[in-house]
Specification:
globular; five-stranded antiparallel beta sheet; mainly beta
Length: 137
C-alpha cells in the first residue's frame, strides 16, 4: 500500500531556466538541472512538456525525455534549449534520479509568464541570470 512506501524527499535539486546569452534580436534560454547536493546523482531522467492556452486555444507541446546520466555534486547539467514562445504556457519538468539504490522524483512547474525580466536572479552554480525552482536548502 502507498503508506508502506518510504517517503523519498527531494532536496537540494533545482531546475532553472537561464538566460544563456542574447543579441539585439534574440535571447537564448537553456533549462538546467542543478545538483546542489554534496553527493552525485545517477541515472538522471527528465521529462519536459508545456501546456496551457494560447490565442484562445488549448495547446500541448510534445513530451520530451532527456537522459542526463550521472551528475556530479555541486554541478549543473543542461536539459534543453527553450524558446520564448512557450513562456506563456505552463512548462513542466519531471525529474527522476537515483542516490545509491533509492529512486527519487519530483515535478517542477514554471507557471505561464513567470519567465520575465522582473523574476530573474543569479542562479547558483551556473552564475547566470534566470528563474529557479527548488533552491538551496
Amino acid at each position: 500500500m502507498k503508506r508502506d512506501l518510504p517517503e523519498n524527499i527531494v532536496a537540494d535539486i533545482s531546475v532553472a531556466i537561464v538566460l544563456e546569452g542574447e543579441t539585439p534580436s534574440v535571447k537564448n534560454w537553456i533549462v538546467y538541472l542543478i545538483n546542489e547536493k554534496n553527493i552525485p546523482l545517477t541515472h538522471v531522467l527528465v521529462s519536459s512538456k508545456g501546456y496551457g492556452e494560447k490565442d484562445g486555444k488549448q495547446v500541448k507541446t510534445t513530451i520530451l525525455r532527456h537522459f542526463l546520466g550521472d551528475i556530479r555534486e555541486k554541478t549543473a547539467a543542461k536539459i534543453e534549449a527553450i524558446d520564448e514562445a512557450v513562456f506563456g504556457l505552463t512548462n513542466e519538468y519531471w525529474v527522476s534520479y537515483y542516490i545509491g539504490g533509492t529512486i527519487y522524483d519530483k515535478k517542477y512547474i514554471f507557471l505561464p509568464e513567470s519567465i520575465v525580466d522582473e523574476n530573474l536572479s543569479k542562479i547558483p552554480i551556473v552564475n547566470k541570470p534566470g528563474v529557479l525552482i527548488g533552491g538551496m536548502n
